[in-house]
Every structure is written in structure tokens, then in C-alpha cells.
Design brief:
With 380 residues, this protein is α/β, with parallel strands linked by helices. 29% of the residues lie in helices and 23% in strands. It has helices at 19-36, 53-57, 68-78, 91-97, 109-121, 156-159, 180-198, 219-233, 243-246, 274-277, 280-283, 372-376, and strands at residues 14-18, 39-43, 62-65, 81-86, 103-106, 125-129, 169-171, 203-205, 236-239, 250-262, 265-270, 301-306, 315-321, 330-334, 354-358, 364-368.
Length: 380
């Protein structure tokens, strides 16, 4: 992977999102839409850089939100359809959402019965999230909505007692960075358990976690699955990927502040932090790729990248290079558009990373910078 914009021109730490890479993903999603007639929504929880919302609105059908703030952002900056789901809504949140959202998905029958009169009176489209109780993930339970005892979604047993008048769609979400084969397993369970209900619906939402734009993803199988559900149940199919929209479309640029040695470990301390700027590195956990690097000990010089916070575990990973690093060198982390910007925080008083856009001519534009006020206004 190479970049064509000047790394040294970007102050650190900064996120840089390339328009061409984003467009490449959007074109692939458009192909799925054209082949199947499905609708694809942006899951804002993964990527909310609204400077690009007008571009994404040329390709996608709207946004999904997990609460009032995301719903407002989608409505104000993206337009088109605005879907909202939450494990539990507050009464005042529902009232605000009526002004910005058009699709409401409820997580439980209690929530549905509590708010259905208000939402239906406002002529909103309503659905229920179901839990098919089947896990297809190898990763940690923190990202498995169908883990035993999950609070997310209505089980088949609970749905059997439901009054579905006013409900026009069902929603499920079981995947995390997975291929279409995992979706096929989930859909087989959904059809077996919830097929009779699908015949009563106008739409179904397959949720997110579809890694559609990853090289090698089985788009043919995905299209077959979408078409099968559409033809069998005569419903509109929605997908709501987040990662797939901005996968590999962005970078995080950092600088080396210091290099220290402790035993056999060479520590390179950066001006970016795992806990502050890329929390998924610790939550997943995973090791993001760095341009020009190799795996530990596969090149002459190996360093452990860590942040400047006081957290002992603020470690990004071990990286090897052909040439020794120097204080002031830039390092570029790949695939940083997703689940990074949306999760940044100011722990330890760390400044938030700046946001840059790179246009089709490789010109860089600073979209936003953050100063002391961003830190102080969240405190008292």
C-alpha cells in the first residue's frame, strides 16, 4: 500500500481520509445495490466524518443511528432515510427522534409497547430487532450480539407472545468483519425460526458486519442471499455496513517523540495513543499495519510502539523496519477511518487528532482541529 500525498505536510497526530479510496468502496456497494435492489445505509457508529456525507449520499440510501445525536447528524448532514435503533430509548429521546428519524427499531417488546402509540401517531416506520441466537464469530464476546445472555434483540420465545400490529419490519445483527458465508448461516436460522413472521413484513434489515469491500469477499453469495429473501418473502432488504463503507480509506499519521530501551525491548514513544486515538487496538484487540513495516524481528530494527499517556498498557504493537527510527520520524497507521475517529477521547489530557481530507488530486484539506477547549468543556 502506498500513498501519494506528502506525509510531512500533515501535523501529527492526524487522521487522513482519501476520497478516491472511499469512492472505491462506495462503487462496490453500488454494484450490490444495482444487482439486487437492496438498500444500503451508513452505520455511523463506525464512520461519522460528515464532511464526506454529501459524497456518500450519492451512493447510499441513508444512515443508521444508535441514538439521538447520531440520528440528528444523519438527518442534518446526510438526509435521505434515517434509521434509529437502541437497546433502550429514553422517553425524552423518543420525542426528539420523532423530528429527525423515520425508521424506529425497538429492542424489546416492553420498549415497543411503551412507545408504539407515540411513534405510530407520528406516522413512523417501526420494526423489532430479533436475536436469532446463533453465533458465527471467532472473536471476543464483546463484539458478539448473539453471545449467551445477550441483551440485544428479541428471542423467538419472546416474540411468540407479541402483538405485531404496527410492526412492518424485522432487524437482526450478528456479524463482525465477516464474509457472506456467516450471513448464510444466520439467514438459515432466521428463516427456520422467524420465517412465518417475515411473511407478514414489508422489510428486513440484515444489520452490519458485512466486510463487503474487503478483497476476496464473496459478493456473489451475498447477492444470492439478498435475492432469495426478497423473492421468498417479498420484502425490501436493507444492509447497514459501517466498516465496509470506509474500509482501508484512511490513515493516522503520528510522530516519534522518543526512543528508549528496557532489556531487549526498544520502545518508540509516539504522539498518538492507542487508548485515546484508536481504542479498538486495545478492545478488539488487534495490531494495525504501519506503512513500510514488517512483523517483529522480520527486519533489522524492531520497536514497540506506545503512546505518551501514563497508562502502562497504552501499547499499539511491535513493528520492524529496515532502517532505524529517529526522533521526529513520521509513522502512518493504515485502515484508520473506521472505529477510530468515532471513539477518540482526551484521557490524560491528550489532544484529539486533527481531521484531514485528501481529494482526487491528492490535495490535503484540514477539515477540523481540536484544542484545549475540547478537553475542558467536557469537564467541570
Amino acid at each position: 500500500m502506498t500513498i501519494s500525498w506528502p506525509i510531512e505536510a500533515v501535523p501529527t497526530p492526524s487522521f487522513v481520509v482519501e476520497e478516491q479510496l472511499l469512492r472505491n468502496n462506495l462503487e462496490q456497494l453500488r454494484q450490490i445495490k444495482n444487482a439486487t435492489g437492496c438498500k444500503i445505509l451508513l452505520a455511523q457508529k463506525a464512520f461519522s466524518m460528515y464532511a464526506y456525507y454529501p459524497l456518500m449520499a450519492e451512493y447510499l440510501d441513508g444512515t443508521t443511528a444508535s441514538g439521538i445525536y447520531e440520528a440528528r447528524l444523519g438527518s442534518e448532514e446526510f438526509g435521505k432515510e434515517t434509521h434509529v435503533y437502541s437497546p433502550a430509548f429514553r422517553a425524552d429521546e423518543i420525542t426528539e427522534l420523532l423530528d429527525v428519524a423515520d425508521h424506529f427499531v425497538f429492542n424489546s417488546l416492553t420498549q415497543w409497547n411503551t412507545y408504539k402509540d407515540e411513534v405510530l401517531k407520528a406516522d413512523k416506520i417501526c420494526g423489532l430487532r430479533i436475536n436469532p441466537q446463533i453465533s458465527t464469530q471467532d472473536g471476543p464476546d464483546i463484539y458478539d450480539p448473539c453471545a449467551p445472555g445477550s441483551r440485544l434483540g428479541i428471542t423467538l420465545e419472546a416474540l411468540k407472545t407479541a402483538d405485531l400490529r404496527g410492526i412492518s419490519g424485522l432487524h437482526f445483527h450478528t456479524l463482525c468483519e465477516q464474509d457472506a458465508d456467516a450471513l448464510a448461516i444466520t439467514l438459515a436460522k432466521v428463516e427456520a425460526d422467524f420465517g412465518e413472521y417475515l411473511h407478514q413484513m414489508d422489510w428486513i434489515n440484515f444489520g452490519g458486519g458485512h466486510h463487503i469491500t474487503r478483497p476476496g469477499y464473496d459478493t456473489k453469495l451475498l447477492c444470492q442471499l439478498i435475492t432469495h429473501i426478497k423473492d421468498t418473502y417479498h420484502v425490501q432488504v436493507y444492509l447497514e455496513p459501517g466498516e465496509a463503507v470506509a474500509l482501508n480509506a484512511g490513515y493516522l499519521v503520528a510522530s516519534v517523540l522518543d526512543i528508549t530501551t528496557n532489556g531487549s525491548i526498544q520502545n518508540a514513544i509516539l504522539d498518538t495513543s492507542a487508548t485515546c486515538h484508536m481504542p479498538d487496538v486495545l478492545e478488539m484487540p488487534y495490531r494495525p499495519h504501519v506503512l513500510g513495516s514488517s512483523l517483529p524481528n522480520e527486519a533489522s530494527y524492531t520497536y514497540r510502539f506506545g503512546g505518551p499517556t501514563c497508562l502502562a498498557g497504552d501499547i499499539i504493537g511491535d513493528y520492524a523496519f529496515d532502517q532505524p527510527l529517529k526522533i521526529g520520524d513520521r509513522v502512518v497507521f493504515c485502515d484508520m477511518a473506521i472505529y477510530s475517529m468515532v471513539k477518540t477521547n482526551t484521557f490524560n489530557g491528550m489532544p484529539l487528532a486533527s481531521l484531514y481530507a485528501c481529494d482526487l488530486k491528492n490535495h490535503l484539506t484540514c477539515i477540523k482541529t481540536f484544542g484545549y477547549d475540547e478537553f475542558k468543556r467536557r469537564l467541570s
